Amino acid sequence: MKILVCISKTPDTTAKIAFVEGNTKFDENGVQWIINPYDEWYSLVKAIELKEKDPTTIIHLVTVGGADTEPIIRKALALGGDEAIRVNSISNDSFSVAASIAQVAKEGAYDLIFTGKETIDYNSSCIGSMVSAMLDLPFVSLATHLELNGTTATLKREIEGGEETCEAILPIVVSCQKGMAEQRIPNMRGIMAARTKPLKVIEPTSIAATTTIKTFELPLAKTGVKLIDADKMDELVKLLKEEAKVI
Amino acid sequence: MVLIYIDQADQQIKKSTQEALSYGAAIAKQLGTTAEALLLGNVSDNLTALGNYGVTKVHHINNVQLNTFDAKVNATVVAHAVKKLNATVVVFAHNINGKALAPAVAVKLEAGIVTGASSLPDTTNGFVVTKTVFSGKAFAAIQIETPIKVISLNQNSFGIHAQETTAIVEILDIPVPAPSIKITSVDKIVGEIPLTEATLVVSGGRGLKGPENWGILLDLAKSLGASTACSRPVSDADWRPHHEHVGQTGIQIAPNLYIAIGISGAIQHLAGVNRSKTIVVINKDPEAPFFKAADYGVVGDAFEIVPALTAAILKSKASA
Ligand SMILES: Cc1cc2nc3c(=O)[nH]c(=O)nc-3n(C[C@H](O)[C@H](O)[C@H](O)COP(=O)(O)OP(=O)(O)OC[C@H]3O[C@@H](n4cnc5c(N)ncnc54)[C@H](O)[C@@H]3O)c2cc1C
Fold this sequence. Notes:
The structure holds two protein chains of two kinds.
Chain A: E1 2-6, E2 9-11, E3 19-20, E4 25-26, E5 33-35, H1 37-53, E6 58-64, H2 70-79, E7 83-87, H3 94-108, E8 112-116, H4 127-135, E9 139-149, E10 152-159, E11 162-169, E12 172-176, H5 188-196, E13 199-202, E14 211-217, E15 226-227, H6 233-243
Parallel strand pairs in A: 1-6, 1-8, 6-7, 7-13, 8-12, 9-12
Antiparallel strand pairs in A: 2-5, 3-4, 9-10, 10-11
Chain B: E1 2-6, E2 8-9, E3 12-13, H1 15-31, E4 35-40, E5 57-61, H2 71-85, E6 89-93, H3 96-109, E7 112-117, E8 128-133, E9 138-144, E10 149-153, E11 168-171, E12 182-188, E13 200-204, H4 215-224, E14 227-230, H5 232-236, E15 257-261, H6 267-273, E16 278-283, E17 296-299, H7 302-319
Parallel strand pairs in B: 1-4, 1-6, 4-5, 5-11, 6-10, 7-10, 13-14, 13-15, 15-16, 16-17
Antiparallel strand pairs in B: 2-3, 8-9
Bound molecules: flavin-adenine dinucleotide.
């Protein structure tokens, strides 16, 4: 069993969101970087759980980014995984990022390719779907559960108002979310081991970007909360009806 | 031509499709072209009535295999249809199936894609689509550089625009590849509106102290016809089912009304609800961060306020 886990570097969930250079770039000043929570908590830990069941499993991590992503990759390797591959490309065009991952995936002949549900910065939820199309593999999105039986995977995925169970023959691409695995914290042994795990850097095959970010913008601040006395609920109902017009 | 994907489940067109159709029709108008829709599989809805949302034609790929969703199969079929029909803009709802499908379709068409669009594209100079980024904390305006453009629309961000017209239905013949997955069962919570499609949501946090106290919240939801949600610690403690968990790591929603009861308003919680049109916060702590993101606030004990609010709603409904 060979698993490829896609890892993305994102700002911490509490990071201040601001932009510089005429609102064309994210202000990285003072920002703490983390492994995208969906990648860490669900896809990576799920891969580790599978390896614990079958120790012959090989886990590779892949990230697309500059050298500044390496501390994040080491953090991921501290949780688990045998080696990591960094595709040396800085891009926020999902198409090019997916193409770089697909390039790695093709060479490695993986049985399972995991992504998180989305990244918490660009929220595009594109990579899993794109990689599956580039490799012509089945794609199960927003998975909450996965079990293997030989080369058959049984998965649960979220649907509107419920869950769907399906079976697929490996290899497949899966996007992972809550339910898939239990969040873990790395231990000292893992952190030590991560230092010496191989981290390969490869160059991307050039691909033209299909999109370009022009500008960023912050939403208009709320004009301020209107406080209503706790004993005047009739007034709140009236405001919701006549002012907000939502009920 | 602008082609809009019709999403269905259980042979019924999803509500988010109506919004996607309205959005696609508005883009077509802006570009001086027509809007047409694409249906895979069979539905019980009246297809000519989709004209109400501004499409002139519905292309129907009438194949029972397509009644269930298979991302790989659907992406192949949709991409083939786009080429055959010569569509230049393809629109999806940014819902569960849309997220699985639209990026794969974009790959097959070598098209640029913007997912989670929040408004109409700016076509005055190129094709620039604005989307939400950083979990609703910012917007990005993104230029699509390719001849074909793929867009998925954030739910509840454009609205449904309807007027009486009818669409022509045409059968479209596209080969359907063999299934890539086998769906073995579907579990749906019956009788509830899926949270992502709800227009009114009542949500509870740790301030409600325990699952035994949820009755007052459920009564309020019932009086409004609202769906229920909760904060992460509430679902982690199994006070409420996991599918109610909203926020950065749960479901992201954008209802017309979000009532937050006993929720502090942590940044990760706000990330899942900050696109709601109107936010009401009920919290005993006047310093709770949620008040900064609220439109209306009530400071006080939820155990007194919530039943009083329910009574006021029922009274107002009775007199209407
Ligand atoms: C990476 C990460 C991701 C996260 N993702 C999410 C997420 O997706 N969703 C999410 O919700 N959280 C998430 N969290 C957790 C988040 O930071 C908060 O801890 C959580 O939202 C707090 O839940 P709460 O508001 O219910 O509880 P608390 O913060 O404990 O707040 C309870 C509130 O109830 C009020 N209260 C108490 N008694 C009463 C009363 N009688 N009447 C009225 N009000 C009362 C209190 O004043 C308080 O404001 C995440 C955290 C991290 C680090």
